[in-house]
Amino acid sequence: MVDFDVVIIGGGIVGLATACALKQTKMNIAVIDAKHDLYQELAENEVKIRASAINLASKHYFEQIGIWSELERSGRVLVFDSIDVTERQGFARLSANSASFHYDQLGYIIENQLMQNTLYQCANTQSNITFFHQPVNDLFFSSDRGFVELSDGCKVAAKLVIAADGANSLIRKKQGMTLLKKPYRHQAIIATVKTQFAHQSCARQVFYADGIIALLPLWQSHLSCLVWSTKPQFASDLLIRPPHLFNQQLSELTEHCLGDCSLVSERELFPLVARYCPKPVQDRLILIGDAAHTIHPLAGQGVNLGLQDSKQLVDVIIKNYLAHKDFGLKRIFNHYQFMRHKDTMMMLTAMQTIQDTFDGASPIKKLARGIGMNMINTTPFIKQHLVKYALGL
User: Is the domain of 321 the same as that of 377?
Assistant: First the structure.
């Protein structure tokens, strides 16, 4: 039996961020993840397929952890200062520029692997953080401890177990925790594409009758992270379509906003499902990140939502740890659970509303969304409020 203060199950971005944020205390922290390749070397001139839009709230959290300067030094962080949302063969449009709202930027596009690498390096150099690279076999709880049994027979105990083990969380399933889920009627194709024209640090989204195409600008001026969400049958076809035909349709559907598009990576397919665990907090156990909720990627807010879980959770743990209180008790996290419930439900509702609004080619819906989006686009107060929310301010 190895005893710790906190055990974190899951070595992804959210789990590692939580470990790194707790490192400043004298707590002993365990991170459990079966994968041995949490750190993967990044080729100098190649980009990883998956990237995320990081808002200012997440940037501030990375600064608090102490990794933001390291991310910037990599030269692979793209500051984007504008967004452009359009509807193909429609007149709905929403655009925003950071200068119009007196911000230096609207956010940052960062490869997921770069964030994970940087967080892993931070955690791996801390004397009070220990990694276990074995699958979880079982877990159980007493009045004052959570116990995690690993596949090699080792048992790890802690006052609090934090499950950040992803959308298909083993811990959530083993504990029989309620999960509400609803398919988005979409699957997402993710890839890296090269565009004829430079992206000019603008994040673009194109809505059309059968899906949504997002182009997130990357640190190389002609490369973007493509997130193409569409109906499952069409997504499956896109996955195996010959590259020249894939490129042709992508260029046509985006109305050549960046000229001709061409694949420069493999394509990955992801089912899109809204998930929500209404009671992610138990005595000695808390679910965070995708283990607690997943949302549609159309606004790029999934990672930010998980990082705010982490930040607010860490704040509660440290406050009670310094006050010599038992931070493993459910009642300690009542306010935390309320705040995360509110933020998550707002995001889930917003994503569902946007998808429903743009789904289909009904003339009445096209007219309504065109009028609605253009009203927002020409009303500074409403637009500023939306921009501040997206920034996490």
Answer: no
pLDDT at 143 over 90: yes
More confident residue, 290 or 45: 290
- pTM for the model stands at 0.91
As given in the structure block, the two tokens for residue 162 are 């934090």
151 and 265 fall within a common domain: no
CA atoms within 13 A on the CB side of 63: 7
For residues 260 and 295, give the distance between their C-alpha atoms in angstroms, rounded to a whole number.
30
Model confidence pLDDT, tens digit, residues 336-374: 999 999 999 988 887 777 666 656 555 655 555 555 555
Rg for the chain (alpha carbons), in Å? 21
Residues 331 and 251 grouped into a single domain: no
Residues in a beta bridge with 188: 229, 270
Judged by DSSP in three states, 163 sits in strand
Q: What pLDDT does 302 receive?
A: 85
Q: Give the Cα separation of 333 and 202 in Å (integer).
A: 39
CA dist 90 and 367 (Å) reads 8
Quickly tell me which residue has 């100098």 as its tokens: 44
Residue whose token pair is 């400043």: 24
